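Bumping my old thread because nobody answered last time. Still need a sequence for this structure:
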């Protein structure tokens, strides 16, 4: 038996607005470029990600190109 306070329907989950904006930005990036953006190896603050995605889309460059890094699709496997 699951206690009431652990039931999904009883949870109220508040999402940080900056985290939500980042999620939306990542979705826009994926839709625009047809591939995901690697956020794991970068230490930018969450607030910076929407700005970075906007720059990528405006300049028509994936993140690696914007940063001048070589993109290796085989490394994604």
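Sorry it took so long. Here it is:
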């Amino acid at each position: 038996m699951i206690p009431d306070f652990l039931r999904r329907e009883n949870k109220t989950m508040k999402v940080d607005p900056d985290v939500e904006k980042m999620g939306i930005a990542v979705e826009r990036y994926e839709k625009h470029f047809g591939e995901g953006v690697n956020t794991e190896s970068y230490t930018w603050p969450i607030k910076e990600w929407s700005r970075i995605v906007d720059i990528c889309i405006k300049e028509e460059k994936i993140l690696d190109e914007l940063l001048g890094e070589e993109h290796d699709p085989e490394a994604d496997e």
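The mean pLDDT is 84. Let me know if any region looks off to you.
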